[in-house]
Amino acid sequence: MDCLSSRSRLWNSIKRTLGSQDAISDSLTLKCEAHPSHPIKVRIAAEDSKRLAKNGGCDMECGKKKSSCQREHRCKKVCHQGVRCETCKEKVEVARDGCSHKLTI
Length: 105
Fold this sequence. Notes:
By secondary structure, the protein is an alpha+beta fold. It is 25% helix and 11% strand. The chain has two domains: 1-25, no CATH class; 31-104, no CATH class. The longest helix is centred in the N-terminal third of the chain and has 12 residues, at 9-20.
């Protein structure tokens, strides 16, 4: 912004306006589509995005219902926008009909 504003009256005016609105920062705030209440601030695009949004989302746990899960298990991987959650492989104990034995499935 300094480079542009030092060479152009238009950009100088834009910089003053944004400055008066406290709208100039040294970072860009990004919000994950799945976790909008957990924004991340990026300063150096390539470096920060690889570190803060490794899988295209944020650094929070995904939390979506796993595909093909009948028991409402949630995905515990780091947020991964645009990639389906894995098929559920969590083991659960269930009582067998007619007896007290439990099965792990």
